[in-house]
Amino acid sequence: MLVLSACFAPLGYQSGDTTLSVNLGSEGTMARSGIVKENFLYKLSFSGPGGRTITENARWGQTVTIRVVPGRWLIEVEATLNGELYARGISTENVGTGRNNSVAIQMGFARIEAIGPFLAEAPGGTLENPVNLHLAMQLNNENWEGIFTALNDAGKYVNLYLSACTRSNSNTGGGLRSDGTLDDPYAILGTGRIYVVSLTLPEAADSIVDGHIISPFDHLSNLKHVSTGNGLKTIGKYAFAGDMGLMTITSVTFGNSVETIGEYAFSGSQLTTIMLPDSLITIGEWAFYGTLLTGHLVIPDSVITIKESAFYLNQLTSVTIGNGVVTIEYDAFSSFWGITSVTFKRSGVPFIDSGFMGNLISVYATHGAGIYTRPTVSDPTWTYIGLP
Questions:
Q1: What Cα–Cα distance (Å) separates residue 383 from each residue in 13, 367, 374?
Q2: Which residue has the higher pLDDT, 93 or 12?
Q3: 295 and 379 belong to one structural domain
Q4: How many percent of the chain have pLDDT more than 90?
Q5: For residue 193, what are the domain limits?
Q6: Same domain, yes or no: 91 and 128
């Protein structure tokens, strides 16, 4: 990790300029890369307001100071060794005056051969204490397989961060294809996939490929957490399903771009709570079937359709239905445990036996938006309480 120190002194502020200082002497990924860090050449690129661009080269231990105008700046750092890209990092920062800021840019390895030496020197690496491994390479099939081979050789568990990885030039094979689809079609047990504990998806990914009965990432058998990043729009069928596969996902962080959660996407997983994103439009059939979801669930206002059995067989006790929902399909919230409180933020949502059971449909048709409760799961009589 490189620390960028942005220092702004209001008394010295003239003609809209201030200074941005980059310190290349910090510790982090590059310091434990197994390569003498002084051998790296760093290229720093700054892109800011009004099309301003600044490029500087530096060595480890140097501080680069440039004059910039306040505003939003894109900062890219590339580390090269013998003329070849070795690691890169990128960050977007709001630069202002009258304050002191420190900006951290996480560097990710751009070369497969850097992974082994890094993991060999990194502390931790157990299932309970995995190593944070950041990558910033093209996710073509060769690199995709190379990552897991390196993990298998190292024998260390990792939190795998792929945020800065780019698309392949090919539309086939594993990794991140040229069309933005993420896939792992040739997964084989024993090829390092068991060492991934947490997975952060590339910002360049648009979708996760549909699985067939089991997840396309089924062999990531120790995967506990998934973060979709802020580029992913579609989570395909069976993407992280656990009921017929090996995975045991316990938590997920949705980025602000997810629009569709496909059929069976998280079915059978061990999720206990979720925060659905405000970008979400469609929740597919059986998407969260048989998970461990409990307590209260909020359906964002952005959601239009909740498909059949989307939350079937969970342990939810209450739900808030956003004001954008147009359709709730059959058995969407059906459960042995049952929901005893429902809040509708709008009137006139058509739904068919959505698992709430009892007379909720008729009572809701009369009163519209508001809070509805029943004393127990077995009680079929719902009562309108009023607006939130």
A1: 63, 10, 6
A2: 93
A3: yes
A4: 54
A5: 111-238
A6: no
